[in-house]
From TrEMBL:
The keyword Repeat does not apply. Keywords: Membrane, Transmembrane, Transmembrane helix. NCBIfam families: MAB_1171c_fam. It comes from Saccharothrix violaceirubra. This is DUF6545 domain-containing protein. Residues 279-368 form the DUF6545 domain. InterPro entries: DUF6545, MAB_1171c-like. Pfam families: DUF6545 (PF20182). The keyword Transmembrane helix applies. The chain crosses the membrane at residues 6-25, 37-57, 141-164, 176-200, 220-241.
């Protein structure tokens, strides 16, 4: 088996796996335009690559009634569609909701109509199985080739400019995905330049020692890395939000851990840390604050810590965070001792939902760690 065929099959396999994973994603959320675009783009790319294999091409040729070069028309139409959906996906992922010029919606239909018209006048008229690997000097065939090349190049250039404008975008996975897409676009433009040069040399009757396409052609060695980078970049970009959420969740669990450990120390029968989630940590902390620690939370400690934080230059919100941390620390240290008199309950913050509560308590947890570190483990509560 030739190297070009091996590369072709490897890329087909990779894109096929990507199509299956995206199909599962789109079934969960079919209303997301970015997910729909990446699925359709990868599916059309897989169709284009499949039709590039001679056995599949000949089989489709026979099924379609042996109409000259018809499978190649389908292949080129699939490539145009894949490029169109790549552009749609990039815009929906990076600049969602940005209005596009009205004429953009006519680009894909116009390109396909032009392609079919030139196919009827060029490749179909010539009656060949497919376009030759050595190019053609027929002006209408050249016009057909230049049409699909121009459409793909326009779309690839649009994505490349979008990737360049947003090259410093966050989060990092999305930035990596866009850069891979940009590399794939550059390789795609290199393929276009090579194909145009090859056609020009053919018109000048200059023979070069290599085929442009076919089993020994250079085309696959430009297109394979190009489409691999674009497909990988689209997948990484599509997953970037999930990756960012997973990282944020891990950071939140780590931030809540000190306060959750303090809460577990005063609670009996609480679960271990092995399967901590932000929500479970919030529940443990709140259970401790409204349970064993409630009677020991002191408004005097809160007000003094709040005033000290304001004097130190912190804003009101950060002062509240530090005051709550001081209250919790004092309550934990006194928990289990005999209370002297009734205490006013401090104005502890309770968010409207678990997610917001987790973010707030993570800040309290960080302030608690800082407080204990600064005090070197010894806190003196002045209750005069």
């Amino acid at each position: 088996m030739r190297a070009a065929n091996v590369v072709h099959l490897i890329v087909m396999l990779l894109v096929g796996v990507a199509v299956v994973t995206r199909w599962q994603a789109i079934r969960r959320d079919s209303g997301d335009p970015a997910k729909r675009a990446v699925f359709l783009g990868l599916l059309l790319l897989e169709v284009a690559f499949a039709l590039g294999l001679p056995p599949i091409y000949r089989g489709v040729f026979r099924v379609l009634g042996e109409v000259p070069a018809l499978p190649q028309l389908l292949q080129h139409a699939a490539l145009i569609g894949a490029c169109h959906y790549a552009t749609t996906f990039a815009r929906e992922s990076v600049e969602p909701g940005t209005p596009r010029p009205r004429w953009h919606r006519w680009v894909l239909p116009g390109a396909l109509v032009s392609l079919v018209g030139l196919y009827l006048l060029g490749p179909l008229r010539r009656g060949e199985l497919s376009q030759g690997w050595q190019g053609s000097d027929d002006p209408l065939v050249i016009g057909y080739v230049m049409t699909w090349l121009a459409c793909c190049t326009w779309a690839v250039g649009d994505v490349l400019m979008l990737a360049w404008r947003n090259r410093m975008i966050r989060p990092a996975p999305m930035r990596l995905g866009l850069r891979l897409v940009g590399i794939g676009c550059l390789l795609g433009m290199a393929h276009t330049a090579h194909k145009v040069l090859y056609l020009a040399l053919g018109l000048l009757h200059i023979t070069v020692p290599w085929d442009e396409s076919g089993p020994d052609g250079l085309q696959i060695f430009l297109l394979a890395p190009s489409f691999t980078c674009i497909a990988a970049g689209m997948l990484i970009t599509a997953q970037s939000s999930r990756i960012a959420r997973r990282r944020q969740r891990r950071r939140l669990i780590a931030s809540l851990a000190p306060l959750a450990d303090v809460a577990r120390a005063v609670m009996s029968g609480t679960a271990s840390r092995s399967r901590d989630t932000p929500h479970s940590q919030v529940i443990v902390i709140r259970d401790a604050l409204v349970g064993p620690l409630r009677s020991y939370l002191d408004d005097v400690v809160y007000r003094r810590a709040h005033a000290a934080a304001l004097e130190a230059g912190h804003d009101a919100e950060e002062a509240a965070v530090r005051a709550e941390a001081a209250c919790v620390d004092a309550a934990v240290r006194e928990c289990g001792t005999a209370l002297t008199g009734r205490r006013a309950v401090p104005p502890m913050t309770y968010a409207a939902d678990l997610d917001s509560d987790a973010l707030w308590l993570a800040r309290v947890s960080a302030a608690l760690v800082e407080l204990r570190s600064r005090a070197d483990g010894h806190v003196v509560v002045d209750r005069r």
